[in-house]
Amino acid sequence: MADIGFRAAAANLSDIAAMGGTPQYLLAALAIPHIGTRQHVLQLYRGMMAACRPHHVRLIGGDTSASCGGWFISLTLIGMVPPRKALFRNGARIGDCLYVTGTIGDSLAGLKLLNEPTRRTALSAKHRQFLIGRHLRPTARVAVGQWLNTHGFATSAIDISDGLSGDLRHICEESHVGVELDLGALPLSKACRAYAASRTLDPMNLALTGGEDYELLFTVSPHQRPRLEQSAVGRGFSLTCIGEIRPYRFGIQALSLQGKRHRLANTSYTHFT
Amino acid sequence: MADIGFRAAAANLSDIAAMGGTPQYLLAALAIPHIGTRQHVLQLYRGMMAACRPHHVRLIGGDTSASCGGWFISLTLIGMVPPRKALFRNGARIGDCLYVTGTIGDSLAGLKLLNEPTRRTALSAKHRQFLIGRHLRPTARVAVGQWLNTHGFATSAIDISDGLSGDLRHICEESHVGVELDLGALPLSKACRAYAASRTLDPMNLALTGGEDYELLFTVSPHQRPRLEQSAVGRGFSLTCIGEIRPYRFGIQALSLQGKRHRLANTSYTHFT
Prior knowledge:
The structure is a homodimer. By secondary structure, the first copy, chain A, is α+β, with helices and mostly antiparallel strands.
């Protein structure tokens, strides 16, 4: 239950991060089934607060009710941005560079590891622990979002919650642009590569389809690139340029490792199928 | 579904009303089961917005996800109060008069009417319609709450959502006071009296135990009473004095129609039993 609370809070913190805001107040609404105990509820709140504490977020209210179905957890997180200053999805311009923070695909690899019926050993305990940790205790990139916003680096931003292929589509649609994505540049962790190799999976697929990494995807004017990259190094932020914004008619195309271009399928998570 | 949306929004508006605030922004989180249709969701939002529109509340966000259980609706309503000015439950003082707005017990009577297996006719269509309307489309007393707050009339306030006997207890506990409740003074509508008479129920019980009337319960210093009542008449607000705040050791006592005192049982709705 603590992991569920942590993940629910991280997803909300990440939404604030993607707008360059400062998270401040949390409201938690719970519907608790008959099998729910006091201990479950305490663990849930403990997990939520563990995610929120580093950001000094205060729990200011919410609601609890009985559920005749399963558990329901609805969090509302209130964040602040300076007046008339927030990052949106609709500001990407042709020629902008597309960046992503950290590494992607780890969370999906962690989920797959948790769902393997029996523990298979062709992966080191360290890699296994890293990937499961990335799934159960994701880090919202709040400091990066604030830095992008206050320095005016990003023209658009979103967090990767449903998967790179789908969230990238949101930026393109709302900015009315296309994109050329360089698959060879996608930042993959050693653990993710090792996991993919051990299960004969394509790590690129994990990176494109895996949601819940909660990394930030954002666009930057080419003139800003030197300032951005220098400033990021100074702060210890990990950023990777993974593509370039193109005209709308170009669509969403991926450049493969072999130098071939193809249209990118939308393989991200859909809530209603 | 429209009635469910309306009731969910009214419950939130009423919480803001009880603090003397101005409701402003609504966030709606829905979990939609497999059987839920687009039409259901539209109706739900229509009901919500019908309750919010008179108060110029804007829907600014929320979330939708799939539910493997039933429907789950969680609303967050953001309201504003002037700096350092809000009504709380903890300000009642010994000697204060206890007031309630409108009439109470109607919503429970409406619910009982809806749950009657076959329609019994010993009640006029007008009364029936009034009581069911009070249950399905309750009015949050936003204007009354703002008026109590801005004029500094109320020392404490709460809305009746779980039932008079329980919500009164919240004021007493948080203000560390007792109360003498005058049962003969409880404001009952003609329709509620007619319903109780036709079903040989005690209307007082409907008023004490019935939740979801969303009327305001508040306390006023005796010196303020003349100003309060004069101002209320001018604005067309319906208020009734139903008791007096006593010392904590007095407890919560009710004065019956026959002039007898007894301790009031807590018969309000409990979410977890």
